[in-house]
Amino acid sequence: MGLDNQEYEKAKTVIFPVPYNSTTYWKSGTKEGPRAIIDASRHVELYDIETKKDISKEGIFTLPFLEPSKNSPEETMARIKNVVDKLLADGKLLIMLGGEHSITLGAVQSFKEKYSDFSVLQIDAHADLRDEFEGTKFHHGAVIKRVRDLGVPVTQVGIRSISEEDVQYIEKEKINTVFFAPDLPIEKIISTLKDNVYITFDLDGLDPSIMPSTGTPEPGGLLWYESLELIKKVAEKKNIIGADVVELDPIPGLTAPDFLAAKLVYKIINYIA
Fold first, then answer.
1. Which residues are bridge partners to 202 per DSSP?
2. Residue 252 CB-density burial (10 A; 0-12 exposed, 13-18 middle, 19+ buried)
3. Torsion-angle region of residue 247: left (phi > 0), alpha (psi -120 to 50) or beta?
4. Using an 8 Å Cβ cutoff, are 143 and 110 in contact?
5. Which residue(s) pair with 94 in the sheet?
6. Per DSSP, what are the bridge partners of residue 14?
7. What pLDDT digit, counting tens, does each position of 174-218 carry?
8. Sign of the dihedral defined by the CA atoms of residues 137, 143, 145, 146, in that order
9. To the nearest 10°, the Cα dihedral for 176, 180, 186, 192?
10. What pTM, to 2 d.p., does this model score?
11. Domain boundaries, the chain
């Protein structure tokens, strides 16, 4: 994250950039998301005025960019899982940068082996509960269905674009889905979560007025301070075991969304630490 002279062995947090786009994606820009976040992070103040600390002093190490497989999405997920397995074995806090949302599956597969009981908090505009889409079960629109197939409970926040098929699945499975409202029911959201929580933050969960740089923007959505309040409250009451920030699709000449994503990553790390 734009920090020089960081050592892996001493770092508490590890940034894992995964510049992945599947061949089904209608735009290819999300593979540029991790680099845009890291480039913007070089210009973000390390001291956090809210928490009154410089989290970089505890060590933040950025891994080399993962090379996605050209053979299959399954092989890319396996590569992601192998890296996350190592990070968890070494006791590191994972922050993964995407890339399209499908990469979450590889991380969750690894966490599933380490933690017998945890839940996923999904901040997103879309439910991502298709069983299959555009000929693949590893589509970014099916990633949460794959997470659910692992037996991992999911709480969804910010959902405002959904198919009838998704609604039927949600009702059948009694998924703890919280649709966006002007007053976010934070305590209700927290009550649905296990003690251990993995956060997946799809940036299209934000209002496109502050985050236009996504592949599939949707009107409405969370704003900056309510997003931070949600993450902060979850961190206070639960054990956040890892997180990812995905679906940044950089727009040339428009850097504000890149800086927002970089700042969001730093805030997540600050709240967890």
1. 246
2. exposed
3. left
4. no
5. 14, 242
6. 61, 94
7. 887 778 777 889 999 999 999 999 999 999 999 999 999 998 899
8. positive
9. 0
10. 0.94
11. 13-272
Mean pLDDT score of the chain, rounded to an integer? 92
Decide: 37 and 26 in contact? Cβ < 8 Å. no
Q: What secondary structure does DSSP assign to 98-128, as a single string?
A: ESSGGGHHHHHHHHHHH-SS-EEEEE-SB--
Comparing C-alpha atoms, which of 41, 32, 43, 50 is closest to residue 13?
41
H or E stretch at 62: strand 60-62
Q: Are 13 and 90 in contact (CB under 8 A)?
A: no
What's the CA gap between 37 and 41, in Å, rounded? 6
Question: What are the angstrom distances between the C-alpha of 75 and each of 33, 188, 259?
Answer: 21, 37, 31
Phi-psi region at 60: left, alpha or beta (left = phi > 0; alpha = psi -120 to 50): beta
Joined together, the tokens standing for residue 65 give: 């960019």
pLDDT in tens, 121-169: 999 999 999 887 666 766 777 899 999 999 999 999 999 998 888 888 9
Q: What is the mean pLDDT of residues 233-250?
A: 98
DSSP-assigned beta bridge partners for residue 98: 18
**For position 28, what pLDDT does the model report?**
60
Q: Buried (b) or exposed (e) across 12-41, using 16+ Cβ within 10 A? A: bbbbbbbbbbbebbeeebbbbbbbbbbbbb
Q: Does domain 13-272 have CATH number 3.40.800.10?
A: yes
Helix (H) or strand (E) holding 84: helix 73-89
Amino acid in position 33: G
